[in-house]
Task: structure prediction
Amino acid sequence: MTKRPNILLILSDQHSRKITGCYGDPIAETPNIDRIADRGVAFDAAYCPSPICTPSRMSMLSGRWPHEQECWTLEDQLASDIPTYAHSLGAAGYRTILCGRMHAIGPDQLHGFTERYVGDCSPNWLGAPRQDLGPLTGTQGPSAPMPGDSDPSSISIRRSGAGQSGYEVVDDATTEAACKRLIHLSESKADGDDTPFLLSVGFVLPHCPFVAQPADYEAFQGRVSRATLPRGANEHPWISEWRRHTGTEAPDPADIARARTAYYGLVRALDAKIGRVLDALEVAGLADNTLIIYTSDHGEQLGDRDLWWKNTFFEESVAVPLILSWPGQVRSGARSPHVVNLVDVGATMIAAAGAQRLPRGRGRNLLSIAIDEKAPWVDETFSEYVTDTSSAWTGPVATQQRMLRSGRWKLVHIHGYHRPQLFDLDADPQELHDIGNDPAYAEVRAWLTDRVLAGWDPNEIAGEVAARCEEKALLRDWGRRVEPVSQHQFTIAAGDSWLV
Result:
């Protein structure tokens, strides 16, 4: 029987799958992510459970779809009595260690982990003040023009280029903590303690602000092409409305070039930090029996279709890089075309550890197809995007959306509209031709719609989300008045963020 492996889970934030060397980008500098792929299996059709941070991450932890854990927005809490993969691995005798980002809201900042270092860049509590990003305030994501601003384009794209985001300072501390903990684990092993571990390393990069260290920015200056995908034919009206709301109708080309160049620089910086962690694992003598997983919580559209950030179900937003390496156990230098999801990551770690499956988890063990490409597998998965109106960035109207990827088909049910989005990814891999109202596809559309709505009631979800808005308003008022202390939060100093 194979000895139970150590597990190193590296989770970044907002990394576009296609801006990675091993996924085919000719100029992206990702030698360390690529070396994981060289020694393992890269999944070419991996998806996130939600194209925004918190629900995607909480679904990954719990193995449940967002509606099953009732965590849809950035301000919803994952209940502490929902078991996670960290609970399962801890119950099986693993050390469960988290360095860096989790992005959970609420008092439970462990969710089954028994050690946590560095912490997050965001507060635990609604109503608590956000970290001070100085000149980069408001550039962290979708942001409509500020009141009185004569420029209609998003400040997230305008305030971009060479400099430093406080988020990178957090990631530097996370890298140091992860490397230090690996050395301590090596010392414990030398002293006879062979307890297996799960070390989860959570990075914020390459999440916007689109600001990269000067050296990382200059490495790509003049080399990054303009966004390559145009707006598609028969565009769904919700997409047009979202673009207008977020001020991405017609940004200045110079702003686009700076933001895209900086994003490549952020990916380069992320990769270098991952390299330090991988090197520390090898120096510690722990690499031979460690399952390494690299992935991200969602993608980044980076101007394709005149869209930025995430928040849609286009591949650039909802698809993620996912790579598994385990020496002598999974295939090496291989690729898998199977449709998989981040909810499968927890099930995979649990299977490798011989731990107890999550009782209501939806995840599937990826090791089967990482070992044998011909192993049985159903190429189907889901993702959800549900918002309320409690945060300005979500827009003036709440939305309830769910995606089904089934074989060649991708259908997105957008509640309140007369038609879905529908793409044939075999014939149209770039999703430029929405056939959601094409009569020729009525039969397949009806079948997919029945499947995507099975067990998922958008009216019921809309009612629950609306009721929670009132509850969250009270919690926000409480946070502002009481000023509770945030645990496991890394303090970003006002001078940590700057633009050249």
Notes: The radius of gyration is 22 Å. The longest helix spans residues 253-283. DSSP finds 14 helices and 15 strands in the chain.
